[in-house]
Amino acid sequence: MKIGVPTEIKVHENRVALTPAGADRLVDAGHEVFLQAGAGAGSGQDDAAYTDAGATILPDADAVFGEADLILKVKEPLPEEWPRIRRGQVVFTYLHLAADRELTEALMETGAQCFAYETLEHGGGLPLLTPMSEVAGRMAIQEGARYLEKPQGGLGILLGGVPGVTRARVLVLGGGVVGVNAARMACGLGADVTIMDVNLDRLRYLDEVMPRNCRTVYSTPLTIREHLVHADLVVGAVLIPGAAAPKLIRRADLSLMKKGSVIVDVAVDQGGCVETCKPTTHADPVYEVDGVVHYGVANMPGAVPRTSTMALTNATLEWTLTLAELGPGRSIRENRPLATAANVIEGKITYPGVAEAFALECVAPETAAEGLE
What we know:
The chain is α/β, with parallel strands linked by helices. The chain has helices at about 20-30, 45-50, 60-65, 100-110, 130-145, 175-190, 200-210, 220-230, 305-335, 335-340, 350-360, 365-370, and strands at about 1-5, 30-35, 55-60, 70, 90-95, 115, 170-175, 190-195, 215-220, 235, 260-265, 285-290, 290-295, 340-345, 350. It folds into two domains: about 1-125 and about 305-370, Rossmann fold (3-Layer(aba) Sandwich), CATH 3.40.50; about 130-305, NAD(P)-binding Rossmann-like Domain (Rossmann fold, 3-Layer(aba) Sandwich). Helices cover about 35% and strands about 15% of the residues. The strands form two sheets. Strands 3-2-1-4-5-6-14-15 form an eight-stranded mixed beta sheet, with helices on both faces. It has a seven-stranded mixed beta sheet with strand order 9-8-7-10-11-13-12, with helices on both faces.
């Protein structure tokens, strides 16, 4: 199969969907790899490394989309990329469709076969979402600590405090991969951390394995509001796979928070779990609502592209190999995890969470893929 890797065009998105090592594996398996010139530069990978691995460098995105049967990306296709996607082409990337009706409908119009990293289920988890969730969870504390600084509009508080001075209080909403990584980073910096979830078994587990400066609390609207009063930094880390995130913090709740406190909503690419949070970019990451600093960058791992690109390829490569080997139809019929990754097939929504978000019809991926090779 011909596999194309275009340059990511989202603002300050420096990741690339494939490392030279990944290209080498795909070429060795008999596939052709086409890379847009300079696509790996932001991640520290030059074109020569890809040509040494057997990839072909093409001058622009039009050439890559025009040549490839399978497009590998990191982030969702942006409007200027939609016309480049053709009927029957396979797109494999993070899509987060439940937060973007316009993108969903645009991909349905293309007739392309769209597979989402974030909904691929295997072994009881989401293996292609996990590495970026690990990065984002850790970055949430880095960025939150930065914006707690007074010159950045924050309270002017050091996350870990110093002897004789109260440490910062960090509230983490969600005990999944993002939440645990955020909590561990905050604990390591010496903060007073509370992690909330609705899964009691998960809370019992976290109570056993997390550091002593992390407590677990069962999440309800009331307990969230009670903890917002004291929180200096709040991390939104809630995930419902493939579906819009629930709103756990409402506009009225901000009045409970300290002026200069910070919210980092990692769930923003799924619509956010904070009502007042909206997607921002690395170029302009924060804004203020009712005295509370909001950080809503939807591609946080793009700020550390060397780490993120390698972690992403490590996770996606085996599934890319399978998708390229079997093609979209056989992948859906013969590989259950790739069937769960199918979001839009032959112009039809095939993932329940996306259909529910927009009250649209959902078709089983196997049904939509009938007749596809």
